[in-house]
Write a structure and sequence with these properties.
With about 425 residues, the chain is mainly β. The chain contains six helices and 28 strands.
């Protein structure tokens, strides 16, 4: 399988599903129908073709930048030197090995599956993106380099283009509701390993008051679940699995990677670090109205006295009763704006092989730690925060290297209980059984 090594970043493979068995024998084909040709055999072996040769750059964008945002469809864009790659993307090249001369259709065409793989230091394949091609942008130059910019999207893009028929759901936990939607005939989303759906922490209402109308967009409905009820995450992970996570609560302290500005070999040196400290994060009055109930209000009067009244209204929540609505209102209170590290980036050329491997597979929902040394009364002092990852970017230039950026949100930390430890051996809200 063709691969390309990016200096101080790793070995990569970019593959596209051609839509048929690329090395299968085909009767009456001038290319694939030649007897005893070792390149085209009766059964074939794979639907994927590596197009890594000629790739100039790859950009992967997944997740969200701010915890208040919705999750957009994940995307990958790559630029290919089509001249170096022997014109494999030219849709008019009927002699291309990827051209399906049975259906007279280019093999490398829109809606083909695509996947980006990185091989770690132990040569283990790790997916960084799985999705589908949605568009090609060709730039043909006379006596110059022909390039193709290919735009790809993950499974959320498909759900954003899928619509529901009218029906009344039953009262059920969020996980059951999500699976029920995915199982409907008009959605027909793959089951089994293609899904990782948490049970959920709240029940959604059922019956006519919670009717799902004809033409309701699946992705929009899932966003309604996360925003008006569960307040978890629904996204496609780096391996192409649809993930639904429960309401974001306590997080066991176990960062996947520690980023810092020191020369500690066990920590990833960050290239850029962003800090947010803004009034718009403040919420000290929340009103939630379930579709089948009445408005429930949570107030933080101390915050209102100190700052001003900053309200959040959620109408038509999918929660099944007033008690759950009031719990959500209290959960959403954010009475004191606090400074936090909201994004951190690292350049792989400054990392050890082990840290490159760890940084490459950080995913949404993982915990990272960020340390920055600042002066307090002239004394260098570490300011450390553990944060949840909400979104990420991978930017790979095959001639230059790789940079990753992670967008974060605050998290409520608990620590693994350690027997006989004077701090972590105390049974309280901050220490929990875990591994």
């Amino acid at each position: 399988m063709p691969t390309a090594t990016v200096l101080n970043a790793g070995t990569f493979d970019l593959e596209v599903d051609t839509g048929y068995v690329v090395d299968g024998f085909t009767l009456d084909s001038a290319i694939r129908g030649v007897l005893d040709d070792p390149n085209y055999v009766l059964d074939g072996t794979t639907n994927y073709a590596s197009i890594t040769d000629g790739v100039l750059s790859v950009t992967v964008l997944r997740g969200r930048k701010d915890p208040a945002d919705q999750f957009p469809s994940g995307s990958m864009t790559f630029v290919l030197d089509d001249t170096k790659a022997d014109g494999v993307f030219n849709p008019f090249d009927t002699a291309s090995e990827y051209y399906d001369d049975i259906t007279n259709y280019p093999g490398l065409a829109p809606n083909r599956a695509v996947r980006l793989t990185r091989y770690n230091a132990s040569n283990v394949a790790e997916r960084l993106f799985v999705g589908w091609i949605v568009n090609y942008d060709y730039q043909f130059q006379l006596d110059g380099v022909n390039t193709v910019t290919v735009y790809c999207a993950d499974g959320l893009y498909r759900l954003a283009n899928t619509f529901l028929t009218e029906h009344n759901p039953t009262k059920e936990l969020t996980g059951a509701r999500i699976n029920a939607i995915l199982d409907r005939a008009e959605v027909d989303y793959p089951s089994g390993a293609a899904r990782n759906i948490a049970a959920g922490t709240v029940e959604l209402g059922g019956g006519s008051q919670y009717q799902i109308r004809e033409g309701t967009n699946v992705k929009s409905y899932f966003e309604q679940i996360t925003q008006s009820a569960e307040r978890g995450r629904i996204f496609i992970d780096r391996e192409g699995v649809l993930v639904s996570q429960d309401r974001i609560g306590n997080t066991l302290s176990a960062p996947a990677v520690v980023f810092s500005d020191t020369a500690n070999p066990a920590q990833a040196r960050y290239q850029e670090l962003g800090i947010t400290f803004k009034a718009e994060d403040l919420i000290n009055r929340v009103a939630v109205t379930p579709a089948g109930g009445t408005q429930q209000v949570a107030d933080d009067t101390d915050s209102q006295d100190t700052y001003f009244i900053k309200s959040l209204y959620i109408e038509g929540s999918l929660l099944h009763d007033n008690t759950a609505a009031l719990d959500l209102a209290n959960y959403l209170l954010y009475p004191e704006p606090e400074p936090r590290y909201n994004q951190v980036s690292t350049f792989y050329g400054r990392l050890s092989a082990a840290l490159r491997d760890a940084c490459a597979i950080i995913d949404i929902g993982d915990t990272v730690e960020v340390n920055k040394k600042i002066l307090v009364n002239g004394v260098p002092t570490d300011r450390s925060q553990e944060l949840s990852v909400e979104g990420l970017e991978h930017r790979i230039t095959f001639a230059g290297g790789m940079t990753s950026r992670y967008y974060t949100s605050p998290t409520n930390l608990v620590y693994a209980l350690l027997l006989d430890d004077p701090v972590y051996g105390v049974l309280d809200a901050d220490n929990a059984l875990g591994s």
